[in-house]
Structures are given as structure tokens and as C-alpha cells.
Design brief:
Helix content: 25-40%
CATH architecture of the largest domain: Alpha-Beta Horseshoe
Largest sheet: 15 strands, parallel
Radius of gyration: 33 Å
Strand order of the largest sheet: 1-2-3-4-5-6-7-8-10-12-13-14-15-16-17
Structural class: alpha/beta
Distance between the termini: 81 Å
Keywords: Coiled coil
Number of helices: 17
CATH class of the largest domain: Alpha Beta
Number of domains: 3
Shape: flat
């Protein structure tokens, strides 16, 4: 066989393999002898007493080049990975693309299972006979793309997945610039061609549809989601919906019974809370819930939280204008979330007034990350409900992020003293960490696990010492956690000194990300 044939990814018969191995051994032996000949001839050539050279270097080196090419080609032809069993190769293909859904239309040749089909006939045959490779799709909707062609592609993709393999479907986000005049007709086609026919096979489903179509799908009779584990519902923001179309229709809870495996739920862009029916979704089974731009009332959120016995991650938005907040909400005596690890709460439309009724009944003893945000800048608010929650239940919290709430130096200091287990404290560079508290942290008396800090300071020398002490402590005996990120604004009439600048650069060389900005007074 010629070298070009050997360099392909073709699989050769067993008798050819034995012959190729013999050829490679013989070529290797000949190459070793030829290398020795050339080396001796080069030594003779360098000798001053040598006569005119009689050794033909051109022929020898050309032969050496051919032998090397033959050995490399035989190695490729006899490579053991080419002769893996089809079942094992199929499993390797699945692992290679697991967690990477295919964008359709494809964005490149080498980042989807089609690349396997272009390698060789054997790989193509195995790939096409591996249904799991053709199950996870992201529908690309954008400028220059024909959505009806994409519909055909997705249907063809799912055909290759066989009749029973579980599927996932997502949509790339689109903007007003990619919005088409026939957008609503396209979304209807997506719903009736890609969603409804395969609904019994979906494992993961992400839908961006007009509200009416979403509600129609969720309440469609005799429609079951037996394999569905995660669901993301995004209300299409570019469809203008008349008041009659978005009128809320009470649900009968059928979806809860028809999605027995659903544990992960996201809802986006529903604005008003009427869609979040407290009886419709399977709250008792959820381990993760995330809502964005979908506001709730306190009573509604607490009713949901009481049902979320297994919840691990929970994110919601409270709005003072939501139905149910017109009157003082009735406090639920006690809401314990024993498995909650991450808790995100966003307050909209000056909903900080809802902090006390919302936080007061909560008990979250295992929470590790707490994110409190406000849509608007809150200059005046009562921090007592938050401090009460932290003090009575957040015993081992590691990450605290408070954004867009004004924090006095006393409140920041109280946070540090109340939460000794903190690893990450993000209060914003506009909020001062008092010098006394900063010194206690630098000496290791407070926050021994601190890795990251974002705040304002008034003593840069103490801040640099803090990071240096943490770095030295983690390297010597593990007394402290290794510092990773510090963003600090400092108030001073003096600039950073040359010595301090050198020390900060040394910290950066040791892998600590440090950003220090001076604020002129």
C-alpha cells in the first residue's frame, strides 16, 4: 500500500495489519543503520585528512526521509484507537459531546457531531448509529437565517435520534434587530412542529414564545412531560400582546401531575406574578427555581417557599406593586428551608418596605450564598430585618453580595462580626469598611476564610498588610484561605507609595487579583 493510503483513517484487515507491523519493524532497523552510516560519513567529512568524499549524502538523506515517512504511516495505520470496538467508540463520541448542545444551523464543522461524519466511513457509520449524539439542539434564530430551514434541520436531527431517546431543545436569544414580520407565525410553527410532537421525549426544554402560546402549551389537555427534568420558560418580549390575549386563566394543576420528574424551573419576562400559580408547578419536587423580571408578592412567594421542601437554589423578585401587597401581608409563622444553599432576592419598585414581612419567617441554616439586590438605588432602608435573618440562621454562609443598598460603616462592620464564616464579601466600592474592623481582619481575628473583598477603605497600608498576611498564612500552614480577588477604593489625600506599589505588584505575581483605586478627597 502507498503511504497516502496508510495515512487515512481507514481500518485495514487483520492480515494487512500483521504485514504493516513487519514493514515498520524492518524500516526501523534499516533507518537505525542508515543513521549510523550518515553519522560516520559526516565525521569523515569533517576530518582534515579525509580525501574527496565518496559517500552520496543526497541519496542517503532522501532514503532516510522516505523511511521516516513509511514508519509514521505504518504507525497511523496500526494505531490501536482505530480498532476500538464500535460500542466503545460510540461511548467515547457521546462523552466528547455531552453537555454541548448543537447549534442549528451549525456554526462550524468541528464543534458538532457532523465532524465525526466527515472523518471516515467507519466513524460516520458509528456516529449515525449513536442516537444520543443527535438529541441536544439549540435553535438559532437571527439575521440572515431562514427559520423554516432551521425547522427542517432540527426535525432531521431528531429523526437521527431514534424513536425513544430523550431530547433537549433550546433557543438562542433574539433581539429586536433579528425580529421578523412573520415572527408569530414562525413561533406557531415551532410550537406545533418541534415541541408538541416530541413533548413526551424532552428531558430539558427552553422555550421563548409569546405568553399566549406558552400558556396554551402548559394547559393543553392530554399533554404529558414524563421525562422532563428542567424547564425554562421565557416570555417573548418582542410580541405585542393585546390585553385580551394576556388575560390570566386559572389553571387546574394538571401540569404538576404531567411532569413527574421536573426538578429545575426558570421563568423570565412575565413581569406580573399571575403566571406564577402557587398550585400549577410541582413546587414540592423542585431543587432549583430561578425567576427574572417576573415579580411576586410577599404572600405569594412565601406560599411557594413553604412548599419547596427540597429546594437548593432559589431566586425571585419582589415588587411592591404586585397583587397581594396592597395590604399588609399576613406573616407565615415559620418557613424552614433545610437544603437551601443559594438564595437570590431582588427588590423592585422600592420594595425594600417588604423586607421585614418577607425575611421575618425565614430560617435558612444551610445557606452558603446570599445575594440581595435592588433594582433602584436604595439610600434609605431598614437593615434590621436582614441582620436579624443573618444572625439567627445563616451560621455557615460563605458568600454575601449586597448590591444597590446604601450601607453605613457601622452596618458593614456588623456584617463582618456577625458572619465569621464569610469567604467572599461584596458590598460595593461605595461602602466603607471601617479602619478598626479592617485592622482586626488584617490581624486574623475576623474572617479567617476571607478570599475576596469588594468595598471602600480609608487605610491602604492596612489593606495591603491584610492581603500579605493571608497569602503568607495560607502558604506556611494553612491558617488562612488563599486570597484571590480584592477590589478596593480608598479615600486619601496621598497617593500610594512606591513601596506599597511594589508590594501590590508582588501580590499580583503570586496570583492575587488586586484592584486599588484612589478617590480624591
Amino acid at each position: 500500500m502507498d503511504i497516502q493510503t496508510l495515512l487515512t483513517n481507514d481500518v485495514f484487515p487483520e492480515e494487512n495489519l500483521a504485514q504493516l507491523k513487519l514493514e515498520r519493524t524492518a524500516a526501523s532497523t534499516e533507518l537505525a543503520l542508515l543513521e549510523a552510516e550518515i553519522a560516520l560519513a559526516e565525521l569523515d567529512l569533517e576530518s582534515e585528512s579525509a580525501e574527496s568524499p565518496t559517500y552520496n549524502f543526497f541519496i542517503a538523506r532522501n532514503r532516510r526521509r522516505n523511511l521516516r515517512a513509511l514508519i509514521a504511516a505504518c504507525s497511523v495505520a496500526t494505531a490501536p484507537q482505530k480498532y476500538l470496538p464500535a460500542e466503545l467508540l460510540s461511548y467515547i463520541f457521546q462523552l466528547s459531546f455531552a453537555g454541548y448542545p448543537t447549534d442549528l444551523p451549525p456554526t462550524g464543522r468541528n464543534i458538532n457531531p457532523l465532524a465525526l461524519c466527515h472523518t471516515c466511513s467507519r466513524w460516520r457509520r458509528i456516529a449515525l448509529n449513536t442516537p444520543e449524539l443527535w438529541t441536544d439542539v439549540v435553535f438559532r434564530y437571527g439575521r440572515g437565517l431562514d427559520p423554516y430551514t432551521t425547522l427542517d434541520l432540527v426535525e432531521e436531527w431528531y429523526t437521527r435520534s431514534g424513536p425513544s431517546t430523550s431530547l433537549s431543545l433550546g433557543f438562542s436569544p433574539w433581539t429586536y434587530h433579528t425580529y421578523r414580520s412573520d415572527h408569530e407565525e414562525i413561533m406557531q410553527a415551532v410550537l406545533h412542529r418541534l415541541v408538541v410532537p416530541y413533548v413526551h421525549r424532552f428531558r430539558h426544554l427552553k422555550l421563548q414564545l409569546p405568553r399566549a402560546e406558552l400558556q396554551s402549551l402548559m394547559t393543553m389537555p392530554n399533554l404529558s412531560f414524563p421525562l422532563l427534568q428542567s424547564l425554562q420558560l421565557v416570555r417573548d418580549p418582542w410580541v405585542k400582546e393585546g390585553h385580551a390575549r394576556v388575560k390570566y386563566r386559572p389553571t387546574n394543576g394538571s401540569f404538576c401531575a404531567n411532569a413527574p420528574r421536573l426538578t429545575d424551573l426558570e421563568v423570565h419576562n412575565f413581569h406580573i406574578s399571575s403566571f406564577m400559580d402557587t398550585r400549577f408547578f410541582p413546587w414540592t419536587r423542585l431543587t432549583r427555581f430561578f425567576s427574572d423580571n417576573t415579580h411576586m408578592s410577599v404572600s405569594q412567594s412565601q406560599t411557594i417557599l413553604r412548599k419547596c421542601h427540597k429546594i437548593v437554589e432559589f431566586a425571585l423578585s419582589l415588587d411592591v406593586m404586585s397583587r397581594g401587597n396592597e395590604q399588609a401581608p399576613v406573616l407565615i409563622p415559620h418557613i424552614e428551608l433545610p437544603y437551601l444553599r443559594r438564595f437570590d432576592v431582588t427588590f423592585a419598585n422600592e420594595a425594600h418596605s417588604l423586607m421585614r414581612p418577607f425575611f421575618e419567617p425565614l430560617f435558612i441554616p444551610e445557606v452558603k450564598e446570599l445575594n440581595i439586590r435592588s433594582v433602584e438605588k436604595m439610600s434609605v432602608w431598614d437593615s434590621a430585618p436582614l441582620m436579624s435573618l443573618l444572625g439567627r440562621s445563616c451560621f455557615d454562609i460563605e458568600i454575601l453580595h449586597i448590591w444597590n443598598f446604601h450601607l453605613s460603616g457601622e452596618v458593614v462592620a456588623e456584617l463582618v462580626h456577625t458572619l465569621p464564616s464569610l469567604c467572599v464579601l461584596l458590598v460595593g466600592v461605595e461602602h466603607l469598611l471601617p479602619k478598626g474592623t479592617l485592622e482586626e481582619i488584617a490581624k486574623g481575628r475576623l474572617l479567617p476564610k476571607l478570599r475576596s473583598l469588594v468595598c471602600r477603605i480609608d487605610d491602604i497600608e492596612t489593606a495591603v498588610q491584610l492581603i500579605e498576611n493571608r497569602l503568607a498564612g495560607c502558604e506556611l500552614g494553612g491558617t488562612f484561605a488563599r486570597p484571590s480577588f480584592f477590589m478596593l477604593d480608598y479615600i486619601s489625600r496621598q497617593s500610594i507609595t512606591h513601596d506599597q506599589a511594589i508590594r501590590v505588584d508582588r501580590l499580583r505575581e503570586n496570583g492575587v487579583e488586586v484592584e486599588i483605586t484612589r478617590l480624591c478627597t
